Amino acid sequence: MRWWLEHKFRMIQNNFRDIDGNLDVEEEICMLKKLHANVVEVGCGGISAFTPTSLDSQRKSRWLDETMFGRLVERCHQEGIRVIARFDFSKTHKDYVNEHPDWFSKSIDGNLIQYNDTLATCINGPYQQEETLRILREVLEKFPIDGVFFNMFGYQIYDYDNKYVGICQCKSCKERFKRMFGRELPTVESESDPAYIDYKKFKEYTINDILEKIYNTIHEISPDIALSTYSTHFVDIVRSESNSAVDRPYPFWIYSGSDNTATIEDTFENKVASNCAINAVDIPYRFMGVSKHLNRIRLLQNMANGSNLDWCIVGAFPDYPDRANYSSVEEVFAFQEQYQELFDSICHDSKVLIVQTNPMYDGTYNSEFRGIFRMLKEWHIPFDVVLKSHLQEAAEHADQYDLIILPGVEDIDCKEFENVLIRKDIAVLGTGITFRNNKELMRKVFGCSIEGIIQVPRGSYLCTKPKDIFLSFKERDWVYLDKEFAVINSTNTKVLPYVGAASYGPPERCFGHEIKEMSGAICNGKHMYIPWMPGTLFYQHGYTDFRDIVYDLLEHTGCLHKPFETNAHPYIEMFFNACGDGQYLLQLINLSGFNGTTVEKPIVQHGISIRFNDIVPSKIYALNKNGKKRIGAGQNLNLPPLDTYQAYHIIV
Predict the structure, then answer these.
(1) Can you tell me the distance from the alpha carbon of 195 to that of 185, in angstroms, rounded to the nearest whole number?
(2) Helix/strand/coil percent split, the chain, to 5
């Protein structure tokens, strides 16, 4: 078995600066061992070469000790630490432009894209198409590295200042696009432009094409060298990031570690996730770390999902000015190492499945998905996540699921998965105007059709009736509605009547609401359709009413499988997975220190109790840094006070 599939790894990434070319190898090894890392990712080539390259297509760091990289690889291997070489071919030195103008990208204005003394290169130009492979082959033939990582791979439409540079207008892009689609390259990102629709296909094809060339080049030399980047095609290790940015719109996504890892670990059997907990608060502020409590949460979420640990800083350790997060890295890495066998054995076999359309490593996200994700977390319902682009695998394991949720999934392009959805024995919930682009599938699955989509007028509501379904709303009859709403035509059961907007000016004029012939939910046996955006509203606005509406609807159909009942607060993130024959791992992460913007030390939680519904444990052990401690047995478990994290090994 290849090394990245055999065990969960613990990786430190040192993003080398030019001045790290004379790295103190022994000091680096000492720190890696202190932090319990067994993989290190370090700068190797591209913008700057940290090896004694003989190629004229990259420049060596002028601080380079030419023996450094080789000694680092040798010493790491002696200490049982694997080495992943980091490359960045998205830019190269501006002086190359005179001799090789076809290497470089051009902005929508036709200008070269400069940052510092570098210019952006194009994925379709000769530099990335040809020189990349030469540089890569030189390194692989000289050094016995264990993996290769590509930074900023693909198409970049923003520079380091977050300035929009748009669709590349270089000659290589124009000619290749014209050959493939017979039309001119678009200049504007518009979903209404057929050329832009083709351009999205063009990007996917060209990225996959060069990744396949890189993958084949690497594996020709050795099949035991892993390829990693921010893609799922022709890679072994799918990279993502839990990161921060000072200008990023709120709400802050506290579940990023769980989201990024679950999406990959649940979707693929032959790839692994490596979600990097970025220490820095933002790209311009790389030398200050995020809150140590946030850093710990990101790493714990990676670990709890049965994924790998991944953490990075810019530069080498000796002069890095913020050491506040070293202790939490050491703590989590050491714990994963101590209980490696259990974390290696985690199975992803939940009864609930969510389909993910826009993973964050693609630069976008689906707010409807995030809201539903958060709902399930706060209900303490274990679930799996599958990428919409890889539904074939989920279709093959469909019998394990009681409920499939489609948050904002506009269409499905997998016939096998369509057949699963049409089945009547598996409950299906569509939210966020699911299947707006597939009327036939909407009719087959939900027994309804969309007559039109409106932008909800402010002052509109849903009436929480019938009350025997919406049990959470004994004293609240109306819940406000916002954003898009689909007017549905259906002969199936309709609930949640739509309350039309009326005047909302001075109090004297606030009356006149009428219940319309529109419904906020359709029930077709076990199949439920919510023609508005409860996930988005919950994610963006936070009112629990949206969460409660969805919960009541699912409870009414009896499709929410609960492997355990608990009185734990919604801000306790819980994981419950099989980890061997008759063995389970229960994990709790205390998120109570998060207030929406700041992450502080969590509030210790007392009196948490759990009742197992599916198993009767014969032995339960608390996993601590000083070893296992038996704490009980039986269906009922009363937990000791919960600080930040606790794991329990359960044997039936």
Answers:
(1) 7
(2) 30, 30, 40
- Number of other residues whose CB lies within 10 A of the CB of residue 64: 21
- The DSSP 8-state label assigned to residue 38 in this structure reads S
Give the whole-angstrom CA distance, residue 445 versus residue 462: 24
Which own/partner contact pairs does 298-301 have at CB distance under 8 Å and 24+ positions apart? Answer: 298/242, 298/256, 298/257, 299/257, 299/328, 299/329, 299/332, 299/333, 300/257, 300/332, 300/589, 300/644, 300/645, 301/242, 301/255, 301/256, 301/257, 301/258, 301/261, 301/573, 301/589
CA distance 620 to 624: 13
pLDDT value at position 504? Answer: 87
Find out whether the peptide bond into 506 is cis, omega within 30 degrees of 0. no
Question: H or E segment at 181?
Answer: helix 171-181
pTM above 0.90, yes or no: yes
What three-state secondary structure class fits 638? strand
pLDDT of residue 509: 87
Position 518 pLDDT exceeds 80: yes
What residues pair up with 24 in beta bridges, in sequence order?
A: none
**415-422 vs 439-446: helix crossing angle, rounded to 10:** 30
User: CB atoms < 10 A from the CB of 467, how many?
Assistant: 12
* Domains, the chain: 3-88+236-344 (no CATH), 352-557 (3.40.50.880), 569-651 (2.60.40.1180)
Separation of alpha carbons 594 and 293, rounded Å: 9
**At what angle are helices 256-267 and 367-379 packed, to 10 degrees?**
100
pLDDT at residue 511, as a whole number: 92
Q: Which two tokens stand for residue 6?
A: 């055999």
The terminus-to-terminus CA distance of the chain in angstroms comes to 29
226-246 per-position pLDDT tens digit? 999 999 999 999 999 999 999
**Cis omega before residue 570 (within 30°)?**
no
Under the phi-then-psi rule, with left for phi > 0, alpha for psi from -120 to 50, and beta for the rest, what region is 427? beta
Assigned token pair, 357:
């359309």
Contact criterion met (CB below 8 Å) for 79 and 71: no
Six-digit token pair at 636?
Answer: 């009922």
Beta bridge partners of 628: 623
Cβ contact 648:617 at 8 Å: no
How many CA within 13 A on the CB side of residue 424? 5
